[in-house]
Design a protein that fits this description.
Elements lengths: L2 E2 L7 H6 L5 E9 L20 E3 L8 E6 L5 E8 L7 E6 H7 L7 E9 L8
């Protein structure tokens, strides 16, 4: 299970409000060429080589620092999609981001995700 640093949030709205200070540690996976050209949640076409990631709750457009716990390597990524949709994973990396972090053939890595800049949450109305 992902570990959240800081207070426990009992609902998603509270988690979104606190996303500017969010730090998570857990498992990351990556997705690549098979999804190339498909629309991401922010309406852009997915580029496997772009420095982007998918996160379930952070506002689209947020910038995060993703650090490989084992090696200390890190990358800055823009949240442009939703996911991951596999239980126990906290972030899906683009193929380019995974390569920069040195993710091996297994495709999974333990990471720390820190919000650098949280985009303003979209409001309807």
């Amino acid at each position: 299970m992902p570990a959240l640093a800081g207070p426990i949030y009992k609902n998603r709205a509270a988690l979104r409000q606190a996303s500017h200070s969010l730090v998570q540690v857990g498992t990351a996976s990556w997705y690549g060429r098979r999804h190339a050209g498909l629309l991401t949640a922010n309406g852009e076409r997915f580029d496997p080589q772009a420095m982007t990631c998918a996160h379930r709750t952070l506002p689209l457009g947020s910038m995060v620092k993703v650090t490989d716990i084992a090696s200390g390597k890190h990358v800055s990524l823009e949240v442009n999609d939703r996911g991951p949709y596999v239980r126990g994973r906290i972030v899906d990396l683009s193929e380019g981001a995974a390569r920069e972090l040195g993710v091996g053939r297994g495709g999974l890595i333990t990471v720390r995700v820190e919000v650098v800049t949280a985009a303003q949450a979209e409001t309807s109305g």
